[in-house]
TrEMBL record:
<dbReference type="GO" id="GO:0005840">
    <property type="term" value="C:ribosome"/>
</dbReference>
<dbReference type="InterPro" id="IPR028877">
    <property type="entry name" value="Ribosomal_eL20"/>
</dbReference>
<dbReference type="GO" id="GO:0003735">
    <property type="term" value="F:structural constituent of ribosome"/>
</dbReference>
<dbReference type="GO" id="GO:0006412">
    <property type="term" value="P:translation"/>
</dbReference>
<dbReference type="InterPro" id="IPR021138">
    <property type="entry name" value="Ribosomal_eL20_eukaryotes"/>
</dbReference>
<protein>
    <submittedName>
        <fullName>Uncharacterized protein</fullName>
    </submittedName>
</protein>
Amino acid sequence: MKASVMLREYKVVGRCLPTPKCRTPSLYRMKIFAPNDAFAKSGFWYFVSQLKKMKKSSGEIVYCHPCPPGAWSWWFIRSKCTCVWGLRCVHILSLTHIKRCSEMNKQQR
């Protein structure tokens, strides 16, 4: 079974809810590849909860929109399901993993 996914690059900005201790909480910005904004928000909360002590129930999304097409951003990416994780965590993967992922996509087309 082959399943291809159209991914867009989303820019998501979120923060903790203001409290009496911290009236202006710091903002966290992230660019993430996702098929729609719901998946982008979900991915944002997943990665922020891994890095900071912040949950969806104690935070809010300030901004979530697709990035405009430009020289450094990809607007649409056609990817197989095996490479979605590699595209989301591209900063963790080594160059060989990225090459293997792109080779698999070329072979499956």
